[in-house]
Model the fold of this input.
Amino acid sequence: MARTLNEIMSFDHVIEVHEDGTITEPRDAWGPELCALSTADGSHTSETDPDLIRSARWQGGWELETGWTGQHGYSGPCMHQSECIGGGLEAHIRATPGQWVVVVIGEDVGEPECWAVAHRPVPVALTPADASALMRLGTTDTAP
Done:
């Protein structure tokens, strides 16, 4: 029987979902390091979500998934400690090619305050010929 994503996706462990549904563990891939600005008592609030989302984007183009938590009145990226990767979230990850990682957001005595799932498309590797052509054009920007 196939392992569940909850078993495979430990904190900061990047996986790659391929078009055919296979899952591999890429070398030299890191997820974002996120630290939530929090309230005076150290707890996360939804007001910090925009900062978390921007920080993930700046660190390699990661997008934080939103809308998967079961927390009442909240649909941001932060999952409660008691939640897991299963059900609809697992189906979504398995059906969406790219790199995926679970990241810790804040820690309270070794336990995550909350956590989030981040996704990005698979980075495109340039061939030497592609890199040379871009250099002749005066750019190394690979964005479309």
